[in-house]
Amino acid sequence: MAQQKIFAGARIRRIRTAKGLTQTAMAEALGISPSYLNLIERNQRPLTAQLILKLVSVYKVEAEELQGGSGPSLAALREVFSDPLLAGELPGEHELVEVAEAAPNAAAALAKLYRAYREQAARLSDLSEMLAREGRATALSAARLPVDEVRETFERHPHHFPALEAEAEAFHRLLSPGEDLAGALKAWLKDEQGIAVRVLPADTMPNWRRRYDRHSQRLFVSERLSAADRLREIAMEACLIRMRVAIAGQVEALKLTSGEAQRLARFELGRYAAHALMMPYRAFLSAAERSRYDIAVLAARFRVSFEQAATRLTTLAGQEASGIPFFLVEVDGAGNRLRRCGAEGFPASRFGGGCPKLVHHAAFAQPGHLLVEAVAMPDGEAFLTLARTLEGPQAAFGERPRRTAILLGCDLAYADRLVYGAALPASAAQAPVPVGPACRLCERSGCLARAEPPVTRPLGLDEMVTGLSAFDFQ
């Protein structure tokens, strides 16, 4: 196998300038001509093995320093130029490589400046949210990725789309599925669209949940999915075909700014439509009221998963008939927020959802168990919260399974209408767990769970006093 050529012009030049040498002096020490050294520094000649050994011997440098790539500097620059503010500025990665190799200190300084910019942007976002809660709108904004724009749009918008609900009701009547919605959908796809549905083994379809092959007119679904998740994938495909005009109209109404954001929104609305088809609005609302919103009972009755039934509860905001206005948060084990939605829009100004004391973070320690807790915000507003872990697609041997947790919440005033209200101890309604919107926006003192200081208060460090929190403030 041919050895990879090593072009290290920038690194050779740094060694020379750091030692205050001219090209003539360095070339003489290395036993080569100045013109040859000049070609090396301009990356027009590679380093030879003999020259590397000579550099190590004469200038006491590490061979890895001459052979290594741009390493951490290149990774940091990739992060900087992946920001939406700089998207499209560079035609390719070769310029990043050149900057990282030719000026690593400048690259590190640029990365440091970018981290400071992100920190300030986060603080501005926190302050903007705090002012919005107080009724003072701001014009603060930051560059966003399409996925961020879609998330924020769906979080603000009530998780209820009447046009899709009406289309789903009509589609359900057309299918007349009885007890076998999956069979009815497969028959409709085959008879009306010429699309055959097949479940493929994991080794044949290792990276996809669902894939539609337009050439063979086949819809492939992964065997790694549960029966409920397979049904949702089939229902999504059918809804994206049958309800494409209604879905396109809803995407247009959201007024997103890019084609990528519109594509992501179409996917989200397709999933919404699938839930509406699997759990028809009126039937689901009636069953929810009769069961006192018992999610396990609803999941069993409609042959769906716990997550699907919980998500459907956040959509019961019809004008003619509505249910309890639930909201939902889903996070992974590292605390990354995956989605937020609510029947009236996610109540970010009232609830926040970023407090580490919320029960869905504790759910990871008790997989599969439903945890019920009453919580109170600093202003006294109280909520009933439910949390449980969710299992992702079936993991193969040796794979780490995907596990997330959802938190479903509503105003504590609805507790007597929920089967879960009886699970609260008598003291919980009187003294709910004190939480906050997020550490940066929370001014509760002495909080053991605090992860960051509040942006609204100066730190009050005193060498004579140590508080319970790692971030004491005045």
From TrEMBL:
Belongs to the short-chain fatty acyl-CoA assimilation regulator (ScfR) family. CDD domains: HTH_XRE. Pfam families: HTH_3, Peptidase_M78, ScfRs. Residues 12-66 form the HTH cro/C1-type domain. This is Short-chain fatty acyl-CoA regulator family protein. Keywords: DNA-binding, Transcription, Transcription regulation. It comes from the Bacteria. SUPFAM superfamilies: lambda repressor-like DNA-binding domains. InterPro entries: Cro/C1-type_HTH, HTH_RamB, IrrE_HExxH, Lambda_DNA-bd_dom_sf, ScfR_C, TransReg_Diox_bact_type.
